[in-house]
Fold:
Amino acid sequence: MKPKVDINCDLGESYGAYTIGNDEELMPHITSANIACGFHAGDPMVIAKTVRLAGKCNVAVGAHPSFPDLVGFGRRDMQLTSEETRNYTIYQIGALQGFAKTDGRSLQHVKPHGALYNMAANEKETAKAIVAATKALDEDLIIFAPQKSALAEVAKKAGLRVAYEFFADRAYNRDGSLVPRKETNAVIHEARKVVERTIRAVIEGIVTTYGGELLKIDEVHTVCVHGDTPNAITLVKALRKGLAKACIKVESAGKFL
Structure:
């Protein structure tokens, strides 16, 4: 059977007079959009515009909830109670659900952003709060999570579908975590390398880590390219072309999970 994979991108991350990324050029080349919900980026005007753009490009939409950290772009750890994490997640998913509904659409998935994503991958209590919020709003929503993470485990146990995620433009540590952005070469900008490592991850289930070791991934359902990476458009275009050449079908995760 022909392998299938989703390509997701973090979009809708502009705010007010500030523009981040190039959503209009990126959207036609992806299959799932993780849309910022106002806590790390995005505002009502940006959210509405991004949802409409996704509809025009036939791209599935998902919520990209974050810690309430607009100044730090959601990339700083915060210590929240489980109730706070649950309610903040409900608040953000609910906001995006409203905009999607007014556009005649429904959400496909939920993917936590930045520090919240990393914390949920490692801490069960954070993962449980996010999963509880997601399931309370819509049991059909897919959770995007790293394989073998606390978030994936908790979501599966709760009966939710999980899309195992691979980061095409980020370097990996030997334990499967992402190399911190402050480290040299933590973000991968070379299109050829992004394509080669993604194909190997999808077909062979292997990625070469930051230190040169081979890390077993086993399964990839969705591949992420960050929308705020300076050459994201070049990377996504090259990735679509490379996956097609490798006979890997690209479609939204909801169509095959």
